[in-house]
User: Fold this.
Amino acid sequence: MKLFADYHTHTKYSDGRGTPAQNIEAAAERGLSEVAITDHGPRGLGIGVAGPETFLQIREEVAGLATLLPDIRALVGAEAAVISSDGRLDLPKEIINQLDLLIAGLHPYYIPEKLGEALLYTLPNLAARFNRSAREKMRSTNTKALVETVHSYPVDIVSHPDLMLPVDVDELARACAGKETALEVNTGHNYNKEEIVRSAARWGARLAINSDAHYPETVGELASGLALVERLRFPSEMVINAVH
Ligand SMILES: [Zn+2]
Ligand SMILES: [Zn+2]
Assistant:
């Protein structure tokens, strides 16, 4: 299997270190033909972009680079955070509609929109990080929230399922099956991703293998994800960034 794209990278517009140009150049140097700049949505605590319109600014900047870096196609998207138990994202649909790619994911630290949501969703999720029984309860809440997100937004990729906050990966894969939404095999975080691949195979959901790079140096570093899907014999035609 060969990969031609890395659809999840961050720049200094959110919590990454490089510029969009550096990420795009790094991807081209790795031999990729596509790369996406996907900074964090604005409500990520200490990690988000300045505001929703920042994505339009990034889009303009990347469009201006096209003639300088002609060998690679650069997409501009966002990694939006799920910020409520009914699956709302921290980015308005008017902005999402102007982006090439939408990644949605659960992140523990963000600024809630309403006090009610903070008490019922945000804070219990934080508590669940340190308490096993609370964790199991939040697994079902988070899964429902993510499934709702997948149904109500044009989500291309669900980032790092079951990484920082618990999710029923099998249930998520079932919701993504038959849709354009891929589950991510995230090579930037070291955790057990076998269940993601197995569940995607079980239900016929797609996968995306992404670096989640926060430095230009790690853009396109996808080898561990590739090795995993190959070891589990996941079909390449169901990997959205694989050549087939
Ligand atoms: Zn993330
Ligand atoms: Zn990310």
